[in-house]
Amino acid sequence: MVSDRDPASRALRAQALLADETFVEALGEIEAGAVDALARANVADPAALIEHTALIQAVRAVRRHVESIVTNAALSDRPGPSFA
Asked: What share of the chain is helix, strand, coil (3-state, %, to 5)?
């Protein structure tokens, strides 16, 4: 859990993760491996299908979460609408 709840500093750390080639490569390789394993899985083995699908969903959820930290911080920095 992140102890620093400041949206700007969280966004900077999240942005650094998204720019980190090793992090991006790791997520990509895990996802690609799971997609490949799912494609090769025996459809008669629901446990394997569930396992590979869950891994794909988890990797994508991590990526979306990190991206949302950056996006939410950017949106919160925008000035609100002016009704003058």
From this structure: 75, 0, 25
